[in-house]
Amino acid sequence: MPHIGPGFDDPEYDNYDPAWKDQDTPFRRWLHEKLTAAGISYAHDMAAASAPANRYNGFSELEMDNIAMLADVTVDDVRTAHKADLAHWAREQQLRDHPDLAVLDADLDRIRHFS
Length: 115
Hints:
- With 115 residues, the protein is an all-alpha fold.
- It is 65% helix and 0% strand.
- It contains five helices and no strands.
- Helix 1 (26-37) runs antiparallel to helix 2 (43-56) and helix 1 runs antiparallel to helix 4.
C-alpha cells in the first residue's frame, strides 16, 4: 500500500494535508476517549497521529496490539473502531463524489429521526 502523507525522505511533504493534524474522525474520537480513560497523558497527541494512519495506511497487528494495550481494550475493539471509521470515510467520499446525494442523505436522516 502506498504511503500517503509526509514521509521521512519527503522534505516538501508532497500529498500531506495539514488538516490531518486536527481532522475530526470517529476513530480519533474513539481513541482519544479510550486513551484518556486509561490515564494516558499524551492521549490527544497519539489520537492525532493515529487517526490519519488508520485511514490512509491502516494498522499492522502489532500496532493494533499496542493501541489495545495502551487503551485498555481488546484488539477486536480496535479493529471494530478502525472498520467503523473506514465505513464513515467511504460514506464521506461517496457524498463528495456525488454532492446530490448529500441532499438525499439529509432527507433520509430527517425521516429516520421522525419515524
